[in-house]
Amino acid sequence: MEYDFDTVIPRRGTDSCKWDTPAQEDVLPMWVADMDFRTAPAVIEALQRRVAHGIFGYTKVPDAYYNAVEGWFARRHGWRIDRRWIVCTTGVVPALSAVIKALTKPGDRVIVQTPAYNCFFSSIRNNGCELSSNGLSYRGGRYTVDFEDLEAKVADPKAKLLLLCNPHNPVGRVWTPEELRRMGEICLRHGVLVVADEIHCELTYDGHDYTPFASLSEEFLRHSVTCNSPSKAFNLAGMQIANIVAADEGVRRRIDRAVNDNEVCDVNPLGVAALTAAYNEGAEWLDALRAYLRENYRFLRGYFQEHLPQYAVLPLEGTYLAWIDCRAAGTGSERLAERLLDQGRLMVSPGTLYGPGGEGFIRLNIACPQRTLGEGLERLRKVLAR
């Protein structure tokens, strides 16, 4: 079946966070991680059937939902999840906050591999914990883990959790099994639990397969918590549905208590229907999406090589978020983002949003029709050429 990712679908005026946040109608938003594509037809059809029923009361998560999660991860990633390990919640960010609340106390340290997804920082801060930054090494246009520094940070008696972003947002790395094992072994040695944010797990490209951290060994499974959702891969963030996977019963009980304390335990019926359809019937559409995103990335790389060769577009192994080294512009990330908005009517995310190591970079969302991407790159070029 063929799927249409080229049609430009108007989103302004639909209460879209992405499109309706900029007040000016001529701004092109390429910032927040939200795609400009309709979701899989099977998901739309499932939602239409559910809406036609017309009653949207409190929702009991059915067996079909758990079957869909189990089946998807077994087929797609070779990871066998037991439904008893799953705690449902409204999103991966609320999940992370609840996990931190459950497994730390105020004053504890949570390790983050920076630059990293900005909501990690607020989730740590809001639970009274301290950020411990394990800065990623950036050499030769590629990021790697600084394992020596990671060992030092994990050995800190106040360190309790490592927030692992796999695939990594914003730098686009898909961690290899070898890298994941080394990180996991360091954490096991010092009694630090791994909390894996794997929300972008479906969005990987040629030669860079996603490996669930918890799938690598029984020890890793028992000493980790995984947060996932179809929201990024199927453009369902507004459906407010996610899962926390915790195999250890004691850990899971504490997380379930925190999810209830944070009042993020009730999921909505449309989210349940959307996830079930996505995981049961959305694989073909997802493969077509990944191929389209891969071509968008190639288009982006080619454009920069031709028009902006002094700016490095980092390899994109996973996600649809291009991480671009703009230090040649001679200005800070925030100032550059302001210039792009004011002079180019282009909205991007400044690298400083992602903490230590983000200065001099911008993040650009390429999950849009290629015509829209081309317009965004033209706007970017005109500003950078001044």
List keywords for this structure.
Aspartate Aminotransferase, domain 2, 2 domains, 7-stranded mixed beta sheet, 4-stranded antiparallel beta sheet, 15 strands, Aspartate Aminotransferase, domain 1, globular, alpha/beta
Can you give a write-up of this model?
This protein has 386 residues and is an alpha/beta fold. The chain folds into two domains: 17-41 and 283-385, Aspartate Aminotransferase, domain 1; 44-280, Aspartate Aminotransferase, domain 2 (3-Layer(aba) Sandwich), CATH 3.40.640.10. 41% of the residues lie in helices and 15% in strands. It contains 13 helices and 15 strands. The protein has helices at 17-20, 41-53, 63-77, 92-103, 119-126, 147-155, 177-190, 218-222, 249-261, 269-281, 283-307, 333-344, 370-384, and strands spanning 28-29, 86-89, 109-112, 130-133, 137-139, 142-144, 159-165, 193-197, 224-228, 242-245, 312-313, 321-325, 346-347, 349-350, 361-365. The chain has a seven-stranded mixed sheet, sandwiched between helices. Strand 3, helix 5 (119-126) and strand 4 (130-133) form a beta-alpha-beta unit. The chain is globular, with a radius of gyration of 20 Å. The termini are far apart. The mean pLDDT is 97.
| Low-confidence runs | none
Q: Output the CATH homologous superfamily of the largest domain.
A: Type I PLP-dependent aspartate aminotransferase-like (Major domain)
Strand share of the residues? 5-15%
Q: Terminal Cα separation, in Å?
A: 45 Å
Backbone CA Rg: 20 Å
What would the average pLDDT be, to the nearest integer?
A: 97
By helix and strand content, what is the structural category?
alpha/beta
Strand order of the largest sheet: 2-10-9-8-7-3-4
